[in-house]
Amino acid sequence: MEPGSPYAPSSACRACSFEGTLAPQGTNEWRSVPNPDSPECKLVLEQTKDTITVTASSCEYYCGARASLDSEFARRRR
Q: What angle do CA 59, 66, 64 make, to 5 degrees?
């Protein structure tokens, strides 16, 4: 299929959008503070010396098809 074709898959459907506040929960973990106007979504951020891992549960509302908020990021060294 040609790019731009109405039948070509869009990368936009594989994206997530989440906005909210995080509250500390333990030493290296944060949880999202629920927004009363949106469906419940739990985000947990865990920090180690080398990575930050995002684990999401019940967050499908915030994502397009085949997308997830679950991620792992390498921490930058200063």
A: 60
